[in-house]
Amino acid sequence: MNLLNTVTVDEAKNKIKDVFSDVKLKEEKVHLLEAVNRYLSQDIVAPIHVPGFHRSTVDGYAVIARDTFGSSENIPSFLRYRGKIEMGMEATEFIGSGECYYVPTGGMLPMGCDAVVMVEYTEVLGREICIQKPVSPWENILKKGEDLRQKDLLFKKGHRLRPQDIGMLAGLGIIDIPVYEKLSVSIISTGDELVPPTKKLNLGQIHDMNTYSLSAAAEADGCCIIERVIIEDEKEGLQSKIEECIAHSHIILISGGSSAGDKDYTKEVMDRIGMPGAFIHGISVKPGKPTIVGKVKGRAIFGLPGQPVSALIVYKILVSSWIKETLYGAEVIHPSIEGTISVNIPSAPGREHYVMVSIKEEAGQTIIDPIYGKSGMLSMMAKAQGYIKIHTNTEGILKGDSVRAFLL
């Protein structure tokens, strides 16, 4: 058995960026309703002022502020009522001293107006309006361009559009959205023991998990899953399937077969298909050490461990970060929470150690509990709310230490 030639996580990330520096994603335009969770291929700037006119933020009376100074319930001001500004209509009227117009929330203000008195502080007396509270200049008014100025930067290239962003773009009349093409991903799970979840298990068999968890993770990163397949631990079959996937996939994820055992063929098959083949075999990380990264015929191939927790962690720290930060150019913020670790966690120096955790609140404190188990246990994945990272040069974490948990 050959020993793995391991590299650190940072070294692996840098190698991946360097080897795939020639990969450029195509740009396309999609309709606004199809743009949620897509990554922008260009900066987006505001085409107009928002709002495009001075508008009222309350139901009330448009006035000249100085006409209300000194007003109170006991000594009100009286203004001539000139009419009503209709919602959604252009206000062409001009307000003079001692005059007012009724205006609804969101309505355009008449020229010359510089404040709005809330209707609650007024009383109608025939053709006069009794003003019972003073207002300051520009009170209860959203000025033209106060929200957004024309040509303001809305979203940077690489931004992933959220539902609230879609609403904002609609409000600006932006319908055709420039985005990067979706990365196409094929997922291959290897193992003689694997059967689909739809089939009944025989003794010695297990249901395939990694195809599903990796598929969900890749889709969450904005990728399009082209194929999901289970194959046996057989060299020729693996080579044939990889060659087939290369024809229609940007990225191929292979679960299992990444170590150095008798039936671990991923590296050998990669090298056989094309150059440069596998350029990483082994990462100084726990779990996930037997990880392979290769480039074959211009395509990225990641050989992930077969253990479910290991496969998902390596995907998160290696594949996901490369997809979002390098290919899509996104500024990635990993949601996290700081808390107190509940027990000692030993760790051997020399490799990064990722520990699945659960998170709870006790007596106003955030408590982080490690989830113990082996990387093939189903319960670890179901119980985990996040993970913590123990750095390479650290021998562990002591009970009561403050740690940061990254949320899953």
TrEMBL record:
It is an enzyme of class 2 (transferase). It comes from the Bacteria. Transmembrane segments: none annotated. Pathway: Cofactor biosynthesis; molybdopterin biosynthesis. Its EC number is 2.10.1.1. The keyword Transferase applies. Residues 186-325 form the MoaB/Mog domain. GO terms for molecular function: metal ion binding; molybdopterin molybdotransferase activity. One of its GO terms (biological process) is Mo-molybdopterin cofactor biosynthetic process. Its cofactor is Mg(2+). The keyword Magnesium applies. InterPro entries: MoaB/Mog-like_dom_sf (IPR036425), MoaB/Mog_dom (IPR001453), MoeA-like (IPR038987), MoeA_C_domain_IV (IPR005111), MoeA_C_domain_IV_sf (IPR036688), MoeA_linker/N (IPR005110), MoeA_linker/N_sf (IPR036135). Pfam families: MoCF_biosynth, MoeA_C, MoeA_N. Catalyzes the insertion of molybdate into adenylated molybdopterin with the concomitant release of AMP. Belongs to the MoeA family. This is Molybdopterin molybdenumtransferase. It comes from Alkaliphilus oremlandii (strain OhILAs) (Clostridium oremlandii (strain OhILAs)).
